[in-house]
From TrEMBL:
<feature type="domain" description="Carbohydrate kinase FGGY C-terminal">
    <location>
        <begin position="257"/>
        <end position="452"/>
    </location>
</feature>
<comment type="similarity">
    <text>Belongs to the FGGY kinase family.</text>
</comment>
<dbReference type="GO" id="GO:0046316">
    <property type="term" value="F:gluconokinase activity"/>
</dbReference>
<keyword id="KW-0808">Transferase</keyword>
<dbReference type="Pfam" id="PF02782">
    <property type="entry name" value="FGGY_C"/>
</dbReference>
<dbReference type="InterPro" id="IPR043129">
    <property type="entry name" value="ATPase_NBD"/>
</dbReference>
<dbReference type="GO" id="GO:0019521">
    <property type="term" value="P:D-gluconate metabolic process"/>
</dbReference>
<dbReference type="InterPro" id="IPR000577">
    <property type="entry name" value="Carb_kinase_FGGY"/>
</dbReference>
<feature type="domain" description="Carbohydrate kinase FGGY N-terminal">
    <location>
        <begin position="3"/>
        <end position="247"/>
    </location>
</feature>
<dbReference type="InterPro" id="IPR006002">
    <property type="entry name" value="Gluconate_kinase"/>
</dbReference>
<keyword id="KW-0418">Kinase</keyword>
<dbReference type="InterPro" id="IPR018483">
    <property type="entry name" value="Carb_kinase_FGGY_CS"/>
</dbReference>
<dbReference type="InterPro" id="IPR050406">
    <property type="entry name" value="FGGY_Carb_Kinase"/>
</dbReference>
<dbReference type="Pfam" id="PF00370">
    <property type="entry name" value="FGGY_N"/>
</dbReference>
<dbReference type="InterPro" id="IPR018485">
    <property type="entry name" value="FGGY_C"/>
</dbReference>
<dbReference type="InterPro" id="IPR018484">
    <property type="entry name" value="FGGY_N"/>
</dbReference>
<protein>
    <submittedName>
        <fullName>Gluconate kinase</fullName>
    </submittedName>
</protein>
Length: 520
């Protein structure tokens, strides 16, 4: 038996998955780390904690598998997009990893959007202007922390830092580079205008390589700890969104991948770069002839967690005592409420929002509350609001790539039959849930197999995944959702004029964030 490992460096954990070359999972490790939110809008991680989680994950999986020499063909990486670490001339971190969820660059992102430069850059980079991007973060650091900015010799993401620590080479794949806002998707190189706006030079960024590029020669100390042949090839891999499409077999035209994990996304693959004239969706590289167009949302499962912790704390305790999943208990409560939550609408913008409104100042709200609404209505409205928002992303995406032919859905939400059915009902499309629970890691492993010549075509992933569930839309819900979704969209537009005002008030009067940051 031959094997491949996919390593998925996520926002809250590293998932390390061992696959055989038939795509079957043969080993798994999930190593958590905290998200640091010391001040308003901060969202950072310790790169050393992430690196340790990767070492621990590889060590655990390989020790349990006890493979023979030559059975492990390679390791392939996925990583969350938009992270930024400043390194000194000795490649030592000057900062923690500033993640996509960090909104401290909001002022400078707003300026780029307002002065027209942002539109020019989006049309070349395919990356919407938002404080999530390294482009915006670099402008913020240059202006607000100039001494720190001047100390930096290198500007990298978490994957590049890990690669350097393991192999001593400084390089970045096209897919991760694509998400920085600094990469021109039409000439496949760092963009001169973006670099000038950011205030950095080419030699401060890693060498660009394809997602199928291979590295070997791991430093002996790390190879010894992990228990791996130092000459085992490591494949650069891509960013997590495009690899999630690959891992759920959503790479054919018109096949849409919908993901709801901590955050969420709607994505579809095209054979060449495509730009939205309205700037609502991204365009990211996966591999030659595979570009992923879509929109990410900040507010997925993290909203469900907020509902559980803040509105259903007693039920959470009860579930723990009964040894049942607290989320299952909440979805059971929500299932008693009819579709549309009796006219209660929730905008799930608890952490600002990316697609389709790209407003880091966006804030959440319940609309339509009456005395007859209960907490059960509120939890159902929250779940529906998350899907409403994903549906608005789909509407924007349709203008760029056309109507979807089918939907492949994955992420933590897929454990909930109620949530899966909501997706089918609101989108009015059949929703297929692939059997593989770790689509992104499988995407990384599949890309690795392709890079190593173990498979001839990325489409081979069809043979790797089964179908766990198919949900058909229920026509009984159409009237409610067709009425409420337009209200949801109109409200989003009307409220947007006040988001900045309320966000500025909250920044001046910050509250302590008591939410758990390390929970999956």
């Amino acid at each position: 038996m031959d094997y491949m490992i996919g390593v998925d460096i996520g926002t809250t954990s590293v998932k390390t998955v061992l696959y055989d070359t038939q795509g079957k999972m043969q080993g798994y490790s999930n190593n958590l780390y905290p998200l640091y939110q010391d001040v308003p809008d901060m969202a950072e991680e310790d790169p050393e904690e992430i690196f340790s989680a990767i070492i621990d994950g590889l060590t655990t999986v390989l020790r349990k598998a006890d493979l023979k020499d030559g059975q492990l063909h390679g390791v392939s990486f996925s990583a969350a997009m938009h992270s930024l670490i400043l390194l000194d001339e000795n490649h030592k971190p000057l900062t923690r990893a500033i993640t996509w969820a960090d909104n401290r660059a909001v002022k400078y992102a707003d300026e780029l959007r307002e002065n027209g430069v942002g539109k020019q850059l989006y049309e070349k980079t395919g990356t919407p202007i938002h404080p999530m991007t390294p482009l915006s973060k670099l402008i913020w650091l240059r202006n607000d922390q100039p001494d720190l900015f001047k100390q930096a010799r290198w500007f990298v993401g978490i994957k590049e830092y890990v690669i350097y620590k393991l192999f001593g080479v400084m390089q970045e794949d096209y897919s991760i580079a694509n998400a920085t806002g600094l990469f021109n998707i039409f000439n496949m190189d760092w963009d001169d205008q973006a670099l000038e706006v950011a205030g950095i030079t080419r030699d401060q960024l890693p060498k660009l390589v394809d997602t199928t590029d291979q590295i070997s020669g791991m430093k002996a100390d790390y190879a010894g700890v992990i228990g791996i042949d130092p000459n085992t090839p490591f494949i650069m891999g891509a960013s997590d969104g495009p690899l999630a499409n690959l891992g759920v077999d959503a790479i054919d035209p018109g096949v849409v991948a919908v993901t709801i994990g901590t955050s969420g996304a709607v994505r579809v693959v095209t054979d060449k770069p495509k730009i939205d004239p309205k700037g609502r969706v991204f365009c990211y590289y996966l591999s030659k002839d595979h570009w992923v167009v879509g929109g990410p949302v900040n507010n997925g499962g993290i909203v469900f967690r907020w509902v559980r912790d803040q509105l259903f704390a007693p039920e959470k305790i009860t579930a723990e005592q009964m040894k049942v999943d607290s989320y299952d208990l909440l979805t059971e409560i929500a299932s008693k409420v009819p579709a549309g939550s009796d006219g209660l609408i929730f905008h799930p913008f608890l952490g600002g929002e990316r697609a389709p409104i790209w407003d880091a100042n966006a804030r959440g709200s319940f609309f339509g509350l009456t005395r007859t609404h209960s907490r059960a209505h509120m939890v159902r409205a929250a779940l529906e609001g998350i899907v409403y928002n994903l549906y608005t992303v789909m509407l924007a995406l349709e203008e760029v790539v056309g109507k979807p032919k089918s939907i492949q859905a994955t992420g933590g939400f897929a454990r909930s039959a109620l949530w899966r059915q909501m997706l089918a009902d609101i989108f009015e499309q059949d929703v297929t849930i692939p059997e593989s629970p770790e689509g992104t890691a499988l995407g990384a492993a599949t890309l690795g197999m392709y890079a190593l010549g173990l498979i001839d075509d990325l489409a081979t992933v069809k043979n790797f995944i089964g179908v766990a569930n198919v949900h058909h839309p229920n026509p009984d819900t159409f009237e409610a959702y067709r009425t409420l979704v337009p209200i949801y969209i109109r409200l989003s537009r009307q409220l947007q004029s006040e988001y900045k005002n309320i966000a500025e008030f909250q920044r001046k009067h910050p509250q302590q964030d008591n939410t758990a940051s390390k929970e999956e």
